[in-house]
Write a structure and sequence with these properties.
Elements (H helix, E strand, L loop, with lengths): L1 E2 L11 E3 L9 E5 L10 E2 L12 E4 L5 E4 L5 H4 E4 L5 E5 L3 E10 L5 E7 L3 E9 L4 E10 L19 E3 L1
Parallel strand pairs: 1-9, 3-4
Antiparallel strand pairs: 2-3, 5-8, 6-7, 8-13, 9-12, 10-11
Length: about 160
């Protein structure tokens, strides 16, 4: 099983680690804060939209707001949030991915809901108190339309093959 790890701070701060095909990048670590970027992480701000070149980004025209709480630990000091749902997508090969999300905010209580694959409810209304963080893990599955070893394809909804969280 491939492994994806997402760490969610209030709404979204992510770390993805995947075992992919040899020709593809095998590890992604995304930082979603407005402040100092954590070591070895890729900075993602609200203007980071999904593209075929990067294979990740905010998707479906959604743009969250970036927040910087400052502090010693950048992984808990910054996050993205929005009044409306927003989507972050990563292009991944077909397979199962474990996703680990840490939710919370240094200064305020938070309520977090996570859907994967654009619609599948994974976490609903996880509440954390100010300064508290909670970690959850779930598995998502991505599919491609091509049936291995054949010329046949399965009908899939648009955007399948990207993990949306």
């Amino acid at each position: 099983m491939k492994t994806l790890k997402f760490t969610l701070v209030l709404f979204l701060f992510c770390t993805l680690s995947t075992t992919l095909f040899a020709q593809q990048k095998t590890s992604y670590k995304f930082f979603f804060g407005a402040g100092k970027t954590a070591k070895d992480f890729i900075k993602v701000d609200p203007s980071t939209t999904y593209s075929k070149e990067t294979r990740y980004g905010f998707d479906f025209g959604t743009k969250p707001v970036s927040v910087d709480r400052s502090g010693r630990n950048p992984l808990k000091a910054g996050f993205c949030t929005s009044e409306k749902p927003f989507y972050f997508s990563v292009q991944l090969p077909e397979g199962n991915y474990n996703v680990t999300i840490t939710m919370g905010d240094i200064k305020e209580a938070s309520i977090t809901t996570v859907k994967a694959e654009s619609r599948r409810l994974m976490l609903e209304k996880i509440q954390t108190k100010p300064g508290k963080f909670e970690t959850r893990t779930f598995t998502i599955n991505t599919r491609i339309p091509q049936i291995a070893g054949t010329d046949e394809k399965v009908g899939l909804k648009p955007q399948i093959g990207r993990a949306h969280v």
